[in-house]
Structures are given as C-alpha cells and as structure tokens.
Amino acid sequence: MNRAAVGQLGAKKPLNQRAKAFLTDFFRQWELQSMILPGVIFMIIFCYIPIYGLSIAFKSYTVIDTLDTAPWVGLYNFKIIMTDKYFWDAVINTLGISFLKLAIGFVIPIILAIMIYEVSIGRFKKFVQTISYLPHFLSWIVLGGMLITWFSTSGLFNQLLLSLGIISQPQNILLDPNKYWWIATLSDIWKEAGWGTILYLAIMAKIDPTYYEAAKIDGASRLRQIWNITLPNMKTIINLNLILTISGLLGSNLDQTLVLMNSQNREKAEVINSYVYRMGMTQGDFSYATAVGLGVSIVSVILLVTANKVTSRLNDNQSVL
C-alpha cells in the first residue's frame, strides 16, 4: 500500500481514535512536550487572549467603559483615519524611514558578515564581531542620549564639521527635521548591523570548504568566489530576511522615535507607532489608536504574503516560509 493510501486511511479514523493517538504520543514524549508548554501558555495569555480587545476599534471606548458596555460605532474610527492628515503624515514618515533602512540597512549586514568571514586572523575577527555586536545590547535610552549629545551645538559632530571647514557655525542637527530620516536610518544601522550578521555568519560557517578549494584551482579570484559560492549559499536566509523586512515596512522603532523626536523635528519624526502611542496613551482615544493598529497589522500581513509570493516565483516557486 502506498503512502497516499495510508494517509487517506489515517484521515478516516474516528475523532476519538485520533485524540487517543495524540495523547499517547504526547505522554510518550512528555519530557519534550513539557518544554514547550511555557511558551504555549505565554502565547495564549499575551497573544491570543488580547485579540478580543481588537473589538475596541469598532466601539467608542473610554476608561469608564468595559469591552462589553462600550457603544458600537462600526467603521466610524476607520473613516476618521482616512481623513486624518496627521495619520497620513506619520505614514509618509514611516515609509520614508523604512525604505531607507531597507535600501541601506538590509545590504550592510550582508557585506559586513562577508568581510568578517573573510578575516583570517582569529583574534582580530573576534574583536570586530564584539565591537559590531555591542551597540545592539545598549538601549535606545543610552544610545539616544549619546546621539543627542553628539548632535548638540557643542557636540562631537559640530566640532568635527567646524574643524573640517564644512560649516561656519554650529547647529543642533536633531532640531533640523529635514535631516531626521537620515539620522534615524543611520543610527538604527549602527545599532543593529553587527547583530544582523549572526545568521549570515552561521550559514557561511556551514559552506563546504572544498567549494573554495576547487574555485582556487580553477583560478577564481576572491570576489568571484564570494559571488559564485558564498552568496548563492546565503540565498535562503537573505530571502527570509527580505520577506520579514518588507512585511515590517509600516512598523518602526518606537523606542528610537520617542528618544530622538522633539517639538522641532516632529513633522518628520512622527511615525505610525509613535502616533498610535500618542493617540492612545497620551490623549486617551483608545478606540482610534486600536483602529490604526489593526489597519497597520492587516496591511503588514498583506505585504508579508505578497513578498513571499514574489520571492517564491523568483526562486522557482520555492518558498522559504
């Protein structure tokens, strides 16, 4: 009997027999199953139960109401979103910063990982890895404070630009809204680029060294080896990271925004996450903030599915998800 027939017979088993088989397998592996139970319980409490709170988006909710007593308003909050100028300004800022991070920040960890992998001196390689990883473990409170100090009129950057003759008088760079997108992008890359190399380095460590030896015998240069051996073996993880990055285009680093945003650069610094935070936590409009968050989540899922479809077609219909 072939596997298809066996699968059909298994599918036709009564529900009680399938439940009994499941419980038998569960208790046979109870040590392994018990290890995932805390994670399952965590997801149920913090990921699935709060889904019921999304009903606030369709109600006029206040702090004196409960989820059941708040009056139902249907799509009223979503209609306000479509005409809210400040929301669309936040969308533009979010997309602008996200596309810059995608165009620059997605490539830099790949290049950095290849450069680290090519270093032959073990101690120097570990030193570079440690230095590149370090900013990831510092909170945005610490890094933001450093950036605010560096960008001040008497800070490091102004002193450097003055000494090079690029500017004639110091200025607080963070107060210039036209420079904020670049500040947000480059500071995020500085913080996360080193940490982003971990997956790429793990993949490169598994590449068979005989490929490089054969390429050397054929006279391939180091760049040719990287192009024809290293990058093709990294294709799967690169596609996966690209899909996840595209799905998060409407997301943004709330911690970074809250630290670096001020009254002068708000018009270019306000992103969707900070807008939702301000509307919900500061102004108390929980229904509107929930509606915005729900809409962003739906669009993010659409972007995820679309990016997965496109990458699978570019890779002979082989999906990485």
From TrEMBL:
Cellular localisation: Cell membrane
The UniProt record lists the keyword Transmembrane: yes
Chain ranges passing through the membrane: 36-58, 95-117, 137-160, 180-203, 237-254, 286-305
Domain of life of the native organism: Bacteria
Main location: membrane
Key words, A-Z: Cell membrane, Membrane, Transmembrane, Transmembrane helix, Transport
InterPro entries reported for this sequence: MetI-like (IPR000515), MetI-like_sf (IPR035906), UgpAE/MalFG_permease (IPR050809)
Gene Ontology CC entries for this record: plasma membrane
Membrane topology: Multi-pass membrane protein
Protein name: Carbohydrate ABC transporter membrane protein 1, CUT1 family
Domain (ABC transmembrane type-1) ranges: 91-307
Presence of the UniProt keyword Iron-sulfur in the record: no
Organism name: Paenibacillus aquistagni
Family assignment from sequence similarity: Belongs to the binding-protein-dependent transport system permease family.
GO biological process, one term: transmembrane transport
